């Protein structure tokens, strides 16, 4: 596949169309007139009421509702970290991504793993860690895997700020229910997943922003505008997005940017398969053996780790990338 880069006019028009000029994370305009949904839970709420409230669409508070005090400063810091992780949490990051690349609109957008839905879902047992995780531990895992970095320690301002920001966004949301828009949509699995079809979808729909070789695109000052999807500057093999089902759900709902739900389910599955069949940084849990690491952590048809693709066993040549030392 040859490199296909837009000329200057196309590039500028594309940025204007997508509303990304000057942005380093994916952010969307928010109408100031919108109000958070009123969702309340009383001690007497029964199961039916809980289920009914869970189906209500939740709208997080607006930025202008952030208090003008020290608590508000921490909320704003969390928002800034989410939007520009490279600048505001660089000591914990080992790739070129921002939190807002996978959690669009600074963690506000439904079906893009919004922070407000995640915050009220923890503590929770996670198969990945085989134990109950707190929200803080979930965020630490994002840094370790999705950011190919290291976990901010408990009490660090980065972790405190993200938790405070998530708390603010979840204001008014019920706990103990699975809010609509949480995580990424779970698509019905098709009869087959096709790498070749996925490569075609990628070339037609994705390469203009993410580059034909999946390395993303930077602005003239070197700031990342569109993130790399594989290679040493992308998420590592331990990240949730390396699961084809997660990638397909995210792509279906959110990609191409600002044009979510324009790809068919099959196209989303196929392009997710293509993207997650590329080499990327090594899983931090690597045992020294790709086969053993796959058996322990990737024993699923949704993971291509340890699988033979184009004559190469994925993970065999994976490096650490720019992962900082723990």
Q: Give the N-terminus to C-terminus distance in angstroms.
A: 37 Å
Oligomer: single chain
State the total count of DSSP E strands. 6
Question: Strands of the biggest beta sheet: in what spatial order?
Answer: 1-2
- The average pLDDT score comes to 88
Q: Structural class, from secondary structure content? A: mainly alpha
The proportion of residues in beta strands is under 5%
Order of helices and strands: HHHHHHHEEHHHEEHHHEE
Poorly predicted runs: 1-24, 27-45
Helix content bin: 25-40%
The largest sheet, given as strand count, sense and whether it forms a barrel, is: 2 strands, antiparallel
CATH fold assignment of the domain at 195-313: Cytochrome Bc1 Complex, Chain D, domain 2
| Number of helices in the DSSP assignment | 13
Please identify which CATH superfamily of the domain at 195-313 we are dealing with.
Cytochrome c-like domain
Q: Based on the coordinates given, report the CATH architecture of the domain at 195-313.
A: Orthogonal Bundle
Tell me the radius of gyration.
20 Å
CATH class of the domain at 195-313: Mainly Alpha
Assign an overall shape: globular
């Amino acid at each position: 596949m040859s490199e296909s880069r837009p000329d200057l006019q196309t590039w500028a028009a594309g940025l204007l169309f997508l509303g990304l000029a000057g942005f380093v994370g994916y952010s969307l305009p928010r109408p100031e007139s919108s109000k958070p949904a009123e969702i309340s839970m009383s001690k007497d709420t029964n199961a039916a009421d809980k289920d009914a409230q869970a189906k209500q669409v939740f709208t997080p508070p607006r930025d202008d509702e952030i208090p003008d005090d020290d608590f508000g400063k921490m909320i704003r810091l969390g928002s800034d970290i989410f939007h520009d992780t490279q600048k505001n949490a660089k000591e914990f990051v080992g790739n070129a991504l921002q939190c807002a690349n996978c959690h669009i609109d600074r963690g506000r957008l439904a079906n893009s793993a919004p922070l407000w839905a995640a915050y009220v879902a923890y503590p929770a047992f996670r198969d990945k860690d085989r134990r109950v995780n707190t929200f803080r531990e979930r965020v630490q895992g994002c840094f370790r895997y999705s950011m190919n970095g290291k976990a901010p320690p408990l009490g660090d301002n980065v972790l405190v700020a993200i938790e405070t920001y998530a708390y603010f966004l979840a204001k008014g949301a019920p706990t103990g229910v699975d809010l609509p828009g949480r995580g990424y949509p779970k698509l019905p699995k098709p009869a087959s997943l096709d790498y070749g079809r996925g490569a075609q979808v990628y070339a037609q729909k994705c390469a203009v922003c993410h580059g034909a070789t999946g390395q993303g695109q930077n602005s003239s000052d070197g700031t990342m505008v569109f993130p790399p999807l594989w290679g040493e500057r992308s998420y590592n093999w331990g990240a949730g997005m390396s699961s084809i089902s997660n990638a397909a759900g995210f792509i279906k709902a959110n990609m191409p940017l600002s044009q979510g739900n324009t790809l068919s389910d099959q196209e989303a599955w196929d392009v997710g398969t293509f993207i997650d069949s590329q080499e990327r940084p090594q899983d931090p849990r690597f045992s020294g053996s790709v086969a053993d690491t796959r058996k322990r952590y990737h024993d699923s048809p949704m993971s291509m780790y340890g699988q033979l693709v184009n004559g190469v066993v994925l993970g065999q040549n994976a490096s650490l990338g720019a992962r900082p030392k723990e």
